Amino acid sequence: MKEFDYIINGGGCAGLSLAYELNIHSELSNKTLAIIENRDEYKRDKTWSFWRVSSHNFEDCVKKNWTNFTINIPHYTKHIECKSTPYQTIDSGLFYKKIINNLEQNKNIHFFKDIKEIKTENSFIFNSVCNVSENKESLWQHFSGIEIETKKEIFDDEIFNLMDFDCDQKDSVHFFYTLPYSKTKALIETTWISDLNDPTLKDYDNQLKDYIENNLKIKNYKINYKETGAIPLFHPKYIKKLNQIEIGTAGGMTRLSTGYTFLNIQDQSKYIRQNINKIREIELFSINKKYQFLDNIFLKVLKKNPKKMPKIFYKMFNCPSNTVINFLSNKSKILEDFSIIMKMPKWMFLKQLF
Ligand SMILES: Cc1cc2nc3c(=O)[nH]c(=O)nc-3n(C[C@H](O)[C@H](O)[C@H](O)COP(=O)(O)OP(=O)(O)OC[C@H]3O[C@@H](n4cnc5c(N)ncnc54)[C@H](O)[C@@H]3O)c2cc1C
What we know:
By secondary structure, the chain is an alpha/beta fold. It folds into three domains: about 5-60 and about 90-130 and about 235-280, FAD/NAD(P)-binding domain, CATH 3.50.50.60; about 140-230; about 290-350, no CATH class. The protein is about 25% helix and about 25% strand. The chain contains nine helices and 15 strands. Strand 1 (about 5-10), helix 1 (about 15-25) and strand 2 (about 35) form a beta-alpha-beta unit. The structure holds flavin-adenine dinucleotide. Flavin-adenine dinucleotide (FAD) binds near residues 10, 39 and 265.
């Protein structure tokens, strides 16, 4: 059986981002890498969006940038600008294609479908395959989105809608999210934050149809693409091993209050590449502990008071937009954290500390 210096287990967002980062910085010119991925083919399956608070390698896979967005609760709409940190959307199809084309040029990189096909004892493993088994208590951000196309020019493609809470909440937290790619094309998602125990929340197709026809007043459209997923709002457990570190969702790269993961994966890949020669000794890359602390309180409040959450999210955006974006993208300074905390209902949050 073949043996490699490095193994990346799971060639999804984190696995491929890391392989690409290592390859473009010539870290694989005299080291071998095996990528283990069990899917049959790479095709567009996700839309990764985020405020561009740090640089990344995939500007050429960005489908659209926006510098304005809205957030809605019943009867109120807030318009927010994000000129210095535009909101970007990456098409996973373009991302996979770019990376695979690049990696295929390097003879030191090999692809396998199953880790059992290679020898692993002497390799260093970057693992992105995790078992996020459902615990009845855990919260998930679960959603389904469709890209629709209309004949008439309907959408304002200069502004996206981050959260529209003007919809049935069903004792949970529910919003719609609309990314207008052009005047005739948009991705529309129905998103829930819940423990996944209520199957009626997963009636996504009807929710989307109802929202498009009755809220957006669009009757004639065709569906070009669909994605459905669930992001764990908890960090998967793993057993520490001397020759392995976890990356991506498996490595705690998800921001628990928002589900945003993509840019954290890029930061983690950079950190690993910068420290690759001392990988067994370095401290693990992690999202700053202050966010884990604050997000855990936030999620406890959310679980106990789902009905209050639309207003809480809305009020958060009373802070200057840079402050909120930095906070949600884990780049905030202490004073920014403080101004966000001041916008929260203090007693409700304080109660969750004890
Ligand atoms: C539909 C969807 C949309 C999302 N949108 C956003 C967004 O807008 N912004 C954001 O920041 N985050 C978003 N996320 C969250 C996060 O960015 C993604 O989940 C991201 O793909 C996580 O990367 P990963 O490498 O950890 O996991 P994955 O990308 O899922 O990669 C894991 C890989 O392991 C492979 N695999 C699984 N089991 C095995 C096995 N036994 N052997 C070999 N290979 C295996 C899988 O096929 C997969 O390719 C989204 C998540 C989903 C599901």
